[in-house]
Design a protein that fits this description.
The complex is a heterodimer of chains A (180) and B (236). Chain A is built from 6 helices and no strands. Chain A is mainly α and 180 residues long. By secondary structure, chain B is an all-alpha fold. Chain B folds into 2 domains: 46 residues; 181 residues, Orthogonal Bundle (Tetracycline Repressor, domain 2), CATH 1.10.357. In chain B, helix 6 runs antiparallel to helix 9 and helix 8 packs antiparallel against helix 9. The chains are: A mainly alpha (180), B mainly alpha (236). At the A-B interface, helix 1, helix 3, helix 4 and helix 6 of A face helix 3, helix 4, helix 5, helix 6 and helix 7 of B.
């Protein structure tokens, strides 16, 4: 039984990337605890908000990779019907899910803790839009770049999205908190 | 001859994109066999062809899973909100939480996709104890999870030293134990669930790839929040 083979190395490397992203995100949260975590209901919102980025951009990257490998998406043409459709769908999904996450956090807060904070709905919605304005184009260009360089984006994009997505999401939440 | 063949393919492909997406149609199989076009390409043409409204297709297919994942995550977050006072007083745990969530979610995805591939290749027939491949994967995942979890706990403890947090040996040991217990329980649970669900889905002639990853990721996230909350209450 060979334990320390190439599979071991691949899993270990991708998990180390994920670990670095997670620790940076955790450090930002810890640093701004007084601003971020004191808002009622923020811990109800936070896990879903962090997960959303991976779910939406991860699927987006995966669809792009399949299209690139099948030849129906060309890395040099960014205006085709298929690509536009994917971009619109990802943005719309991000807006819908951000809104829903905010509403769920608001409802849980109201019915379980008897605290009314409308602010959390706007916080989720604005931060979701802000984060996706960065993350979705970043996913698009990173997938195209990796494909052009001859790499399989499927093997690299998942840990990349998890790491960058968490950091971008937390920064977007902090910026939105300052705005509202 | 070549022109006739080209016309033939175009005729079939035009017919293909006009098919109702959800229904299986023998035309897919026919084009695949006759013109040697991969089923994946034909699926893509049918799913996102010129007659399909792409955003609507993507949103319609993704929204249910995304909403379910949002609800599950929010319920997990509710457990955290309940222990908010203890949670925000433990700086190493705040730093550790996103790292653990990412790591365990990652293990869920890896176990699912690897096991799905093993099922397709016929390498995972029988129980965990009988399959050498499965045993190797379990040992590999357990070793990697122990190393990465220990590393993340160590880094979070070191980083918390830079804040005003007063760290002592007792707290450091508790944080370390919480991280190790949490990840070991979840990795074992994810492995068990992936195997049981994977074999069940495979026997039902479904592709485990389409279901195992969302299932294990949701369980990993939700389980991490619940177990972490329980361990924080238990230790602090």
């Amino acid at each position: 039984m060979k334990i320390f083979d190439s599979t071991f190395k691949e899993i270990f490397s991708s998990q180390i990337i994920s670990l670095v992203g997670g620790v940076i995100t955790g450090t930002i949260i810890a640093f701004y605890t007084d601003k971020l975590l004191l808002l009622p209901g923020i811990l109800i919102l936070l896990p879903g908000f962090l997960e959303m980025r991976g779910n939406i951009s991860g699927s987006f990257a995966s669809r792009l990779s399949s299209g690139l490998f099948l030849g129906v998406i060309k890395p040099n043409k960014t205006t085709i019907h298929l690509l536009k459709g994917n971009l619109i769908a990802s943005f719309l999904l991000a807006i819908i899910v951000s809104g829903v996450l905010g509403i769920i956090a608001f409802l849980f807060n109201y019915f379980v803790f008897h605290i009314m904070t409308y602010k959390i709905i706007f916080l989720s919605l604005i931060a979701g839009i802000l984060a996706n304005l960065i993350e979705i184009p970043l996913t698009l260009f990173a997938t195209f770049y990796l494909f052009k360089k001859g790499y399989d984006p499927n093997n690299i994009m998942a840990p990349f999205i998890t790491s960058t997505g968490d950091i971008i999401s937390i920064c977007a939440l902090l910026i939105t908190l300052l705005i509202i | 001859m070549k022109n006739k063949q080209k016309k033939d393919i175009n005729y079939y492909l035009t017919k293909l994109v006009k098919l109702e997406r959800r229904k299986y149609h023998p035309l897919v199989h026919k084009v695949h066999r006759k013109h040697n076009i991969s089923k994946k390409t034909l699926f893509y043409i049918r799913e996102y062809g010129p007659h399909s409204h792409i955003p609507r297709v993507i949103i319609k297919e993704s929204i249910k899973v995304l909403l379910l994942a949002s609800i599950i995550s929010s319920i997990g977050g509710l457990a955290f909100e309940n222990i908010k006072d203890i949670f925000i007083s433990l700086i190493p745990i705040i730093i550790l939480f996103p790292a653990l969530n990412g790591l365990i979610g990652g293990f869920g995805g890896i176990v699912s996709s690897k096991f799905a591939s093993m099922l397709h290749e016929g390498k995972a027939i029988g129980s965990l104890l009988k399959s050498r491949e499965l045993k190797t994967l379990l040992i590999q995942i357990l070793i990697i999870s122990t190393i990465t979890t220990s590393l993340s706990a160590l880094v979070s403890l070191v980083l918390s030293q830079f804040s005003s947090y007063s760290l002592n040996f007792d707290i450091a040991l508790k944080v370390f134990l919480i991280a190790i217990i949490d990840s070991t329980i979840l990795v074992m649970a994810l492995f068990f669930i992936a195997i049981k669900a994977g074999i069940y889905l495979f026997k039902k002639k479904e592709d485990p790839n389409n279901f195992l990853i969302p299932i294990t990721t949701a369980i990993a996230d939700f389980g991490n929040m619940i177990i972490l909350s329980f361990l924080i209450i238990l230790f602090f």
